[in-house]
Amino acid sequence: xxxxxxxxxFAKTIEENEFMKMMGLEAVxxxxxxxxxRIKMDRKFCNPYGTLHGGILYSLADITAGFxxxxxxxxxVTVDGDLHFLNPAIRTEYVYCEAKEQRRGNDLSVFGVEIMxxxxxxxxxxxxxxxxxx
Amino acid sequence: xxxxxxxxxFAKTIEENEFMKMMGLEAVxxxxxxxxxRIKMDRKFCNPYGTLHGGILYSLADITAGFxxxxxxxxxVTVDGDLHFLNPAIRTEYVYCEAKEQRRGNDLSVFGVEIMxxxxxxxxxxxxxxxxxx
Amino acid sequence: xxxxxxxxxFAKTIEENEFMKMMGLEAVxxxxxxxxxRIKMDRKFCNPYGTLHGGILYSLADITAGFxxxxxxxxxVTVDGDLHFLNPAIRTEYVYCEAKEQRRGNDLSVFGVEIMxxxxxxxxxxxxxxxxxx
Amino acid sequence: xxxxxxxxxFAKTIEENEFMKMMGLEAVxxxxxxxxxRIKMDRKFCNPYGTLHGGILYSLADITAGFxxxxxxxxxVTVDGDLHFLNPAIRTEYVYCEAKEQRRGNDLSVFGVEIMxxxxxxxxxxxxxxxxxx
Lengths: 134, 134, 134, 134
Prior knowledge:
The structure is a homotetramer.
Chain A lengths: L2 H13 L2 H6 L2 E6 L2 E7 L13 H16 L5 E11 L8 E11 L3 E9 L5 E12 L1
Antiparallel strand pairs in A: 1-2, 2-4, 3-6, 4-5, 5-6
């Protein structure tokens, strides 16, 4: 399967999932072992301090890394994932997340994630582990 | 301030925040250094496998621990937080989250979180660290 | 196999491993899904601030949880593990670590760890994930 | 202060600390916000499976990131740190660790760590958070 097809396949996954649509999630690029997604800043996802809720950022990270984990075919479920909130998500039109493969195993795969602003400022970093369901 | 007041104060925080309301979040109990919240299972928060999205569970955990972190007064921002997905959130009416203080510092506070089903089955565990803004 | 036997079996594991012996590790109690170990405070394991090195505490945690993970029989390797340093390890004769099972799976097991002083003050908390090698 | 001086300063820190010397730790390079250290593979630091103990790898990671955290001057203590064990440390003469600054704050700093073999194979990744003591 071509990489362009992969991006389209996950765009379709988003279309069929209510929560991903509600977030306004977009699949920017999906290749084997890699994914990039984005969401638009929206007041309705902000915490009382006016920055994006940590849970929205974590949703973006888990879904992006999940796309990368599923890019080889089998289903994958999240084992664990952490997020380090380095800088608040504020004053940016979009928030981008990239997931890069750190380990590809038969059973377990690990992805590093970075969340960035429009100007490529790193907002959050994290690591997500997936178990492949064969 | 009394503990009953604390629960009411955070119920009001929910009322005033669009994302928390959209999640259907309820503050069950907030005391100094402790918080318990719940959300109702809803198809619209489920992933393509039919279980609650990890990001919704993380939102629940971060907000619950954040209430516990703010229970002493000053504002607190999340430094980092991880979640271990032990069992899928499925076949339960509500999903509960408890946050218990592990460390209370002037600058940094740490909370252990547990997410449970109606029957007190542990679904997820995690640890969240907050920085107090004086 | 009886629990007393399990404690003895892991005491023998320590006897046969140079690093565990060097740490002065003792298996206090091992049951299925549970382990408790301890080490003696020693200047030679302290950092320049006079408290136990984080790496020694992590070694204690990973080995203790590893014993609990191996208490059912098959070998288990660490997938990941984190440690939160709540209070410095200082002014205690021994440092204790307890590992309690949070999830027992065919492939993946998860253990919560607590490191305590002589007076049961919690010094560190963490979560360790193991993959069972069948 | 020059970067060459920084490397020498931390080489001296190692000389004066019994545990770091016992590990055979070497400071390869320390700059502001960056550190690289290494240790030599040694049977006496291996677990019963013949690969380096997770606790030795964590010690290497925490000390390396700690050097980077202290490279600006003030003392720094570890808040938390996690390690993901991607590939076993085996069949390599040295094990290298690099710590790169992800966030530099007045109070809190965050470093990403990578542990590599002689041939730059990534063995472990992690994130360490430090609190600066002014």
